[in-house]
Amino acid sequence: MAKIAVIGLGYVGLPLAALCAIKEYDVIGLERSPEVVETLKTGKSHIIDHEVELLLKDAHLSGHFFPTTDHAELSACQTYLICVPTPVDENLEPDLEPLLGAIIDIAPHINKGDLIVVESTIFPGTCESIVLPLLEEKTGLSVGNDIHLAHCPERVNPGDSFWTSANIPRVVGATTAEGTKAAAQFYSSILGGEILNVQDIRKSLRPKFSKTEDGYTESQIPLGSVTMMRSIRDAEAVKAMENTVRDVNIAFVNELAKISDALELDVVDVIDGMTTKPFGKGPFFPGVGVGGHCIAVDPEWLKAASMKAGYMPEIIQLSRNTNNGMPAYTIRLLQDALNDRGYPVNGTEIAVLGVAYKKNIDDPRESPFYEVKSQLLAKGAKLKVYDGWVKHENSVDSLEEALSGVKAVLIVTDHDDYITRVKQTNLADLGIEIIIDGRNCLDGEAISEQGITYIGVGRRADLSAR
Which of 147, 449, 460, 461 could be disulfide-bonded to 454 (CB atoms 3.0-4.6 Å)? Predict the structure, then answer.
């Protein structure tokens, strides 16, 4: 089997190295500390974590784990897993010195056909703009042709007896599709799970509740699965964004705690009560705006009550400002796309699909449609509005009439009935040149293949096809 190098034997690298050894890969674990290496050679862990200790015990017994401080022992490896720390400095700026030092350390030993995987947490663009040129400079090899560079963001949860390095689902991305596949196959070999495309998650595997004879169960991403992202930048962003989402949510419940103090509530009891709701827990996706009599209204009531009690909830205010600003943001996307095609907003016919605040209902309360309509009319656009569920706002009688003769389509509500028909229509044959997908519900690549400019909220066909 291939020989594996794991660079850095800390909380990330040590369990990964042990897992590879258990799967009968010969693993060279490179560690700077001689004391740590000597401890590991005895089969003992320098990290106090029961699950890591169990993995290391099995790895030691396998005879496939070789911790060392000697760089020369890397010479026969074909796969390099970089697991060094990536801290921030005193100015809270990313410190890439450990990562760059690791690249310099392994470069003399890299040969054609090798796979280099960065597991260290990095910001989007690091591999392509920083790691790749350094790797090519130090090895004289071409990334993507001679060698593969991939990113598989580490996912460890120290102290967790269930989610361990052996079963946590992973994501991978590389500078080429071939590199992504090679990295996915490697991780699948040690995790034992299936390989998925990120589109599989979007279509069928997102966690959601489904009704069964025994009640409701939540579907999950398969244990030990490996999901292939469509670019190395997307893989880098997964780690940065998933932890930022956690940070924002933790900050928000901390704000709820302050509100609870002001209103004399028990925030833990309230949160326990909130957990009984079996839907609406996410994942959440961006869009043209939020509406309805709950999300668009309830935070304002809570904010008002909190302010009356003497506490200004800053995160709620920022959230409201952000969500209230999404219609204007979406219109800017439309305006930029029209400009790129040589059309002004003023005088251009635009189809606006959807009035209801969410799909498959007839409720328009607080819908972002009204702000979209107001701003577009103020800019002089000629609108064709259609929603088969909320007909009193329609300016046309059918979807076909809405799409006829317009240069651009802006989707506000993704009702299943007409979105299905839109997907089945050759929009270019109708003269449509721009689709602004305010609900990210269409296949951007399929639309762009018709010669149409496709822009979703936070996504573009030209990026998703990278």
Answer: 461
